[in-house]
Amino acid sequence: MTDLPALTLFNSLTRQMEPFEPVHEGEARVYTCGPTVYNYPHIGNMRAYVFADILGRTLSHRGLRLTHVINITDVGHLTDDGDAGEDKMEKMAAQKAQSIWDIAQHYTQAYWADIKALNIRQPAHWSIATDYIDAMIDFAKEIAPRHCYELDSGLYFDVSTVSDYGRLARAVTEEGEGRIEAVAGKRNAADFAIWRKTPAGETRQMEWDSPWGKGAPGWHLECSVMSGKLLGFPFDIHTGGIDHREIHHPNEIAQNQAFCCTNGLDVPANSGARIWMHNNFLVERSGKMSKSSGEFLRLQLLIDKGYHPLGYRMMCLQAHYRSELEFSWEGLGAALTRLKRMLMAAERLRDAEAAEGSHPKLAPMVETFEKAMAEDLNTAVALTALEDALAAKKVDPAIKRAVVERMDAVLGLGLFTLTRADLRLRPKTADIAEEAIEEVLVRRKQARIGKDFATSDALRDDLAAQGVEVMDGDPLGWEWKLG
Ligand SMILES: Nc1ncnc2c1ncn2[C@@H]1O[C@H](COP(=O)(O)OP(=O)(O)OP(=O)(O)O)[C@@H](O)[C@H]1O
Ligand SMILES: [Zn+2]
């Protein structure tokens, strides 16, 4: 689309806003680091995928042919992003006395359910790490002679063999290196295992033969291989959470650089992807939300408490992806109410058949929306433009509908697929059926018509005792809610 303002994105590599110029004309190729499926995702993890989804939708909206890859890490991610600890998958499997394959299967399904509930579009490929072991070994074989060395514990990447290692993290400081566990024989503190050998006398549930002995690939190697294989180097955009800017992505970049040089591809500074983008954290008052820290918030918990998952999507969109976002139940409630109001406005357009065209009253909103999204995905401002468009008076509903639909295709709030009633979820703790509530409300209405306020109040209190709040004159048109 030529009439849209040029898209600029914040590139973590240069710490600057940069125009998006596709590597392949008319296309956009994006890789997103996926979850390690050793546990349920928490809602902080899901913020990373809501962000990647908004990016993908924005690229599609601009008429680019999008190829999006999200991987599933089912092997190789250690309990520390550096090189220490156990494999997260092996550890959980041992704890639960289950096979790793079952663990991976279960948590992948749970993750996909959250993806769906949050209206995140399906990527072109879900790449499963264990499906690419041969390709990983081939990649490692290519770069090993010039960039790697072998120790008893595995094949290590020598970070001094590539130029400008760590430029993404901008911090190969004492402190940064201090986080990486010393392994005897490592040439540089930041060197990392690209293949981990199974220690003598041990067997792992997941291990493969390789030129360096039985073992498993390193987590960083996996993403380099899957992104390069499915998208080709260089591709357009690589995304992940901001923690990956420190270790995982610098290590991917080092491998990509080594691989591209070996293959005669272009400049030494070839990072594999042109633009690296990172979403900031969802935090709780007590700090970053983390799976490793025992109790954590799952999307299912929100649903069990009666919050529609798209309320959480709305909460994410209200903040810029590069800002920290603090989770609170009040904040979630407010986001859900906002979504509800938008749905009510959209419901009025439901009968109109979307018709292309423009209206002078909508033009400023469209302009604000497009400008906001073009400036590094400013969803917070885009949302207000969408609300203003919904509220515009005396505009042909058919044209309004088309405009709102186009905006919603970018934000993915499902304004024309959901109804207000869909947003009202029964909290798990409520055991009263909706028909029963409606039936009491009919009786209450009759009592009120007959001016029998004692009965009307008694029925209201009755419902309250069962956790149902009656809402007379609710501006959103809900007669009751489960509290
Ligand atoms: N609190 C958070 N807010 C936003 N994104 C997050 C948060 N925590 C992790 N992420 C991102 O979620 C994605 C999936 O992460 P992954 O499944 O590897 O989680 P993890 O690192 O094992 O879990 P955790 O760090 O929560 O213990 C990554 O892109 C990661 O950067
Ligand atoms: Zn990754």
From TrEMBL:
EC number(s) on file: 6.1.1.16
Keywords: Aminoacyl-tRNA synthetase, ATP-binding, Cytoplasm, Ligase, Metal-binding, Nucleotide-binding, Protein biosynthesis, Zinc
Residue numbers covered by motif 'KMSKS' region: 288-292
Tree of life domain: Bacteria
Co-factor(s): Zn(2+)
Protein known as: Cysteine--tRNA ligase
Protein biosynthesis listed as a keyword: yes
Oligomer status and interactors: Monomer.
UniProt family annotation: Belongs to the class-I aminoacyl-tRNA synthetase family.
Positions that bind ATP: 291
Cross-referenced Gene3D superfamilies: Cysteine-tRNA ligase, C-terminal anti-codon recognition domain, HUPs
A single GO molecular function term of this UniProt record: cysteine-tRNA ligase activity
InterPro entries: Cys-tRNA-ligase, Cys-tRNA/MSH_ligase, Rossmann-like_a/b/a_fold, tRNA-synt_1_cat_dom, tRNAsynth_Ia_anticodon-bd
Subcellular location: Cytoplasm
